[in-house]
Write a structure and sequence with these properties.
heterodimer, A: 240 residues, alpha/beta, 6-stranded mixed sheet, 4-stranded antiparallel sheet, B: 226 residues, mainly alpha, 0% strand, elongated
């Protein structure tokens, strides 16, 4: 995936001031930065949940900003996981995972359920297929949300602060699933404050501030020896 | 004749009641039929209008708000008389039953649209985002994800409003629709006795108590924990 010259304005306020970022296949890129730096907005522009004001976003060779691109067809190849899980409360776990398989990919009920079971297996929740979202812990809900996204076999996964709404003891189970995905070769773009996870799992860290990429590099460099003053201050702040 | 006897004779005269029971039963069927058609058309139209409103097409929404506000502000009786006595002058004659059905359906659709719209807007935006992120289209998201949640939230206010508006079928009596109240007042003037009106009241209870009970059942049936 490649982001070129991405800008986003809300009225007078420019929250993204020209972002260029390329994510290689099988790469895990971590985006860090102070709140209000535009991290989540950037992530949401990657599947046009937020409409970019300007720029190009190329996924697997297709510019999703091009007027002729079928955005719904592209979105199923771009999985997204949200801070607040956003499971459908009126559907069982299985219903949550099969909905897009059936209505977007047009799979039969049996095929969709087989794919859903496989995805739930990958997040370690195969036995919860018949449960309802409100019966699950936050960590389990987030893993179902991951299963819902990976069941569509996306080329890239976007994670928008996936563990921020979780109790501390539940964070590990979600990070474990993300680690497994990475080992399975999934391309991932992650906005998160889990610095320990970033340090051990990320290929590259991108530091954003005030709507721009300030610095990027391998974790040891960003955490060990940041070049910019702002990045140094941020890293010191979160690691004390 | 004691006071009690007079009271019983006025309101609970069994002989009069027996004589007019068939007429009231006939009115009961007319009311049931009318109410059913009003509920189906009113709620159906309200649902469609609310879904169209979610497209946020400004000119349409401005007209819709005007439609909804007018129908909610005007007393249904005024509309019934306007339609029934006004339209024939334009060469359109739709009959008294259809007049009441049309007016009450439109009024219910206006209230139902507002209630459904409130339901749609109370579904968290994250639900839209999650569904759209998996490639579901706008309409698919509305139909499979948003409306099922919105409708559940709207059942209590919608039930109340539906009952309030279907009770207005009694207004049909002023333009001669042969529903319960019309049959009862006719019987009352022929017999010079109020017992048919009591019979009419019983007929309304027979019709609406099950509806109220059904509404309560639906509320508990569709409630779910978040």
């Amino acid at each position: 995936m490649e982001i070129r010259g991405l800008r986003k304005r809300f009225g007078e306020l420019e929250v993204l001031k020209g972002i260029d970022l390329a994510v290689r296949e099988r790469e895990l890129v971590f985006i860090i930065g102070p709140s209000g730096s535009g991290k989540s907005t950037m992530l949401r522009c990657c599947n046009r949940l937020e409409e970019p004001s300007q720029g190009h976003i190329i996924v697997d060779g297709t510019d999703i900003m091009a007027p002729r691109t079928d955005i719904n067809a592209m979105r199923r190849r771009i999985g997204m996981v949200f801070q607040s899980f956003n499971l459908y409360p009126h559907m069982s776990v299985l219903g949550n995972v099969t909905l897009a398989l059936r209505k977007v990919l047009g799979k039969s009920k049996a095929d969709a359920e087989a794919a859903a079971h496989a995805a739930l297996e990958r997040v370690g929740l195969a036995e919860k297929a018949r449960a309802w979202p409100n019966e699950l812990s936050g960590g389990q809900q987030q893993r179902v949300a991951i299963a819902r996204a990976i069941a569509l076999e996306p080329k890239i996964m976007l994670f928008d602060e996936p563990t921020s709404a979780l109790d501390p003891e539940l964070v590990g189970s979600v990070l474990k699933v993300m680690q497994d995905l990475r080992e399975g070769g999934m391309t991932m773009l992650v906005v998160s404050h889990e610095m320990r996870f970033a340090r051990q799992a990320a290929d590259r860290i991108v530091f954003m501030d005030h709507g721009a990429i300030v610095e990027e590099g391998p974790p040891e460099e960003i955490f060990g020896n940041p070049r910019s003053e702002r990045c140094r201050a941020f890293v010191a702040e979160i690691q004390h | 004749m004691t006071g009690l006897d007079r009271f019983l004779d006025t309101f609970f005269n069994t002989e009069v009641m027996a004589r007019y029971l068939p007429a009231i039963a006939e009115g009961f069927l007319v009311t049931v039929w009318l109410a059913l058609l009003v509920v189906l058309a009113g709620i159906g139209l309200g649902l469609v209008l609310a879904m169209l409103r979610s497209l946020r097409f400004r000119p349409f929404n401005a007209l819709l708000v005007l439609y909804v506000d007018l129908l909610r502000a005007l007393p249904p009786l005024v509309l019934i008389l306007l339609v029934y006595f006004g339209l024939p002058n334009l060469g359109i004659s739709i009959g008294n039953f259809v007049t009441v059905w049309l007016v009450l359906s439109l009024v219910l659709s206006a209230f139902a649209e507002e209630i459904f719209w409130a339901g749609i807007t109370s579904v968290p935006p994250g639900q839209w985002q999650a569904a759209r992120s998996t490639g579901l289209g706008y309409l698919q998201t509305l139909v499979y994800v948003v409306m099922p949640q919105a409708v559940r939230l709207t059942i209590p206010p919608l039930t109340n409003r539906t009952i309030a508006i279907t009770k207005n079928t009694a207004l049909g009596t002023v333009i001669g629709v042969g529903e319960i109240l019309n049959q009862a007042t006719t019987a009352q003037s022929f017999s010079g006795n109020a017992s048919p009106l009591v019979l009419g009241a019983v007929a309304y209870l027979l019709l609406f108590i099950p509806v109220v009970a059904f509404g309560r059942w639906v509320e508990t049936r569709f409630a779910w924990k978040r």
